[in-house]
Design a protein that fits this description.
The chain is built from 14 helices and 16 strands. It is of the alpha+beta class and about 425 residues long. The protein has an eight-stranded mixed sheet, sandwiched between helices. Helix 12 links the parallel strand 12 and strand 13. Helix 1 packs antiparallel against helix 5 and helix 5 packs across helix 9. Bound molecules: histidyl-adenosine monophosphate. The site of histidyl-adenosine monophosphate (HAM) has 25 residues, from strand 6, strand 10, strand 11 and helix 11.
Length: about 425
């Protein structure tokens, strides 16, 4: 057993899995950019209050799962910090801090990176996980709501998941939700004796959260609870209708799910989650999002609507593996510089450095194995060309060996970069006619 291991609930992404993540990150960057989103980075930690106010003090994410950061002893900055459990609150904090209300509206932002939740680890639930997140701040919808849902779905499809279901709900706003929450609280009070301790506490402080309780003892009670869709006010009901009409126009057919309320307090109106229907019994969303029309104000800005989603990349990678969708492994240069004299690492390092300076991706075998072993391992690692540094170098030449064809020829060192570029192009496309 090794003495040290990655902390519980975290894992190392070894090169194969890192390559799968990189593909998803690249797709996220390209699609977000194509849809008009600009990349932003926020710190991995924030003042804890950003999450307590933004996500909500009485939520699992803040009450149970926040990684609070202990500053070093003697630190005069006695701020309370926490690692970000999600990016939305930090992005909205940045929007307010940098006066983005004076930018052309709406502001479309995207961020992909690690998030931290001190959750009970299990398959698909980690303490450090990655999200692809997009946010549109300054557009009340309903068209943009549909555009956001369509982007989330299109992303998962392009990633390779053909069969994804969108669950959609509206959870009302400050005008209609209080009456519903009162009704919900009355319902749960009638069943107070059956509630687990945490849920009984939350009944007093934040009854809506009982609907997304992870406690199995709550499932039957939740199924029979009053539904929010019957309590929507006129403007919320109309907004919800129009979101659905816009979704229909772009061929997205959501499943209406009146019990879907999401686990974070900032949501208003549109709420959605994405699932793989084929993943039997695995009640884990690939992603989720919704509208948060009160969040900017809650974090000190002017009343401004917003909407966004987060997709869990760890879960997408896992789902792709389960569906048998393979992604290309880590890429390595297809040119390897080897040497006839194993000890002469100076020549090899010089040649590979010159190649890199000339823009050719190349690696060198800098160990002291015999030439045969160097060539063997170059071929095993998938290289197509070996540049052999031998006695010919005294006359200004090296030998370029095509490892697939088994052919080789002398090339002037001065022409090497150009020759390799040509050979690689031919290798990719086949020899040019004539
Ligand atoms: P969320 O539903 O809490 O929403 O997280 C979004 C996605 O992150 C989940 O659907 C899941 O795929 C992934 N995820 C969450 N927790 C874990 C975990 N412990 N391990 C692995 N994956 C996880 C949000 O975070 C909102 N900020 C989304 C949003 C953006 N709403 C509006 N804008």
């Amino acid at each position: 057993m090794p003495s040290y291991r990655s902390p519980r609930g975290t894992r190392d992404l070894l090169p194969d899995e890192r390559a799968a993540f990189s593909r998803l990150e690249g797709l996220a960057r390209d699609m977000a950019s194509d849809y008009g989103y600009q990349a932003i980075e926020t710190p991995l930690f924030e003042q804890a209050e950003v999450f307590e106010r933004g996500v909500g003090a009485v939520t699992d994410v803040v009450e149970k799962e926040l990684f609070r950061v202990q500053a070093g002893r003697g630190d005069s900055e006695r701020e309370r910090w926490a690692l970000r459990p999600e990016p939305t609150a930090g992005i909205v904090r940045a929007w307010v801090q940098h006066g983005m209300r004076t930018w052309p509206q709406p502001v479309r932002l995207t961020l992909t990176g690690p998030m931290f939740r001190y959750d009970r680890p299990q398959a698909g639930r980690y303490r450090q996980f990655w999200q692809f997140d997009v946010e549109v701040i300054g557009d009340p919808g309903p068209a943009v709501d549909a555009e956001i849902v369509e982007l989330a779905l299109a992303y998962l499809r392009r990633a390779g998941l053909g069969d994804v279901r969108v669950l959609l709900n509206s959870i009302g706003d400050a005008a209609c939700r209080p009456a519903y929450v009162e009704r919900l609280a009355a319902y749960f009070r009638d069943h107070e004796a059956d509630l687990p301790t945490l849920e009984r506490e939350r009944l007093a402080t934040n009854p809506l959260r009982l609907l997304d309780s992870k406690d199995e003892r709550m499932a039957a009670l939740i199924a029979d609870a009053p539904r929010i869709n019957e309590w929507l006010c006129g403007p919320c009901a109309e907004h919800f209708e129009r979101v659905q009409a816009h979704l229909a126009a772009v061929g997205v057919e959501p499943v209406l799910e009146p019990t879907l309320v999401r686990g974070l307090d900032y949501y208003t109106r549109t709420a959605f989650e994405l699932y793989r229907p084929s993943a039997h019994g695995q009640q884990q969303a690939l992603g989720g999002g919704g509208r948060y029309d009160g969040l900017v104000e809650l974090l000190g800005g002017p009343p401004t609507p917003g909407i966004g989603f987060g997709i869990g990349l760890d879960r997408v990678v896992r789902a792709l593996a389960e569906e048998g969708v393979t992604s290309p492994g880590p890429s390595t240069p297809d040119v390897v510089v080897v040497g006839a004299d194993p000890e002469d690492t100076i020549r090899r390092l010089r040649v590979v450095t010159d190649l890199r300076r000339a823009g050719v991706a190349a690696r060198a075998d800098l160990g002291s194995r015999k030439l045969g072993k160097q060539l063997e391992s170059a071929a095993r690692e998938g290289a197509h060309f070996a540049v052999i540094c031998g006695d010919e170098m005294d006359g200004g030449h090296v030998v370029v060996r095509d490892l697939d064809a088994g052919t080789q020829r002398q090339v002037a060192t001065a022409d090497l970069a150009r020759e390799l570029a040509r050979a690689r192009a031919q290798h990719r496309h086949g020899p040019a006619a004539g």
